[in-house]
Specification:
The protein has 233 residues and is mostly helical. It is built from 13 helices and two strands; from the N terminus they run H-H-H-H-H-H-H-H-H-H-E-H-H-E-H.
């Protein structure tokens, strides 16, 4: 049995046998049959389960990751993304385009100014905005406390205050205006003119950049007045 398998393997490895089989596979009728079979197999329950299990293997994931890092693969993906077919797929849906045009027309109409102002200052809208702002602020406090103070609970990096999040503030480590001269932050849109209300949103949007820490209001104000908090002396 072993000799038979070895003979078959040697036979199949011959260049003329490989060329003949490739010729048979490349015939239009055989290609169509294979394509139809592959489609049915991928859509079948058994095929989906096997494909999923195969893709979850560590060695398969590693090969895929390595392949995606090659210049050849990156060039191919870039070419695909710039193709007319891909651009057509990314094209804005008709319904969304109409909605955007209607919204633009609505915003430019002077008659709607009062209605928009009324909506923007309604108790429901203000409460919703405050809730979203508070959630983002808490997320920022938790992230920098975990990263710089090794604490799962938001706390002051200087004195450790953590009794209430309202006692805490987002501090610019190098100074608010001084950070205007840091190229890495300026490159992603930092400006000392940003209001504190939108700073948290900007930090989250830019994946929590370096340069910020969490201090309580006492330590933050003391740092602003004296250059350093008395706790550090």
């Amino acid at each position: 049995m072993k000799n038979e398998r070895q003979k078959n393997k040697e036979y199949e490895s011959r260049p003329e046998v490989k060329a003949k089989r490739k010729e048979v596979r490349d015939r239009p009728e055989n290609k169509a049959k294979q394509k139809s079979y592959n489609k049915k197999y991928k859509e079948s329950k058994e095929g989906k389960a096997k494909i999923t299990a195969y893709l979850q293997r560590p060695e398969v994931k590693a090969r895929k990751k390595a392949r995606e890092q090659t210049p050849k693969y990156k060039a191919m993906r870039k070419k695909q993304n710039e193709s007319d077919k891909r651009k057509a797929k990314r094209k804005e849906p008709e319904s969304r385009r109409k909605q955007r045009e209607w919204q633009k027309k609505y915003d430019l109409d002077p008659k709607n100014e009062l209605r928009k102002k009324k909506y923007a200052h309604s108790p429901i809208t203000l409460a919703r905005r405050k809730t979203i702002r508070d959630e983002i602020r808490l997320e920022v406090l938790q992230y920098y406390s975990k990263r710089l103070s090794k604490s799962n609970i938001p706390c002051c990096r200087c004195c450790g205050e953590k009794s209430h999040v309202d006692f805490l503030a987002i501090d610019h480590i190098a100074g608010r205006k001084e950070m205007d001269s840091e190229p890495e932050l300026v490159k992603i849109g930092y400006s000392s003119s940003k209001k504190i209300e939108v700073l948290g949103q900007w930090i989250k949007k830019n994946n929590f950049p370096k340069g910020f820490q969490i201090l309580c209001h006492n330590c933050n104000v003391a740092k602003g007045i004296y250059g350093e908090c008395p706790h550090e002396k």
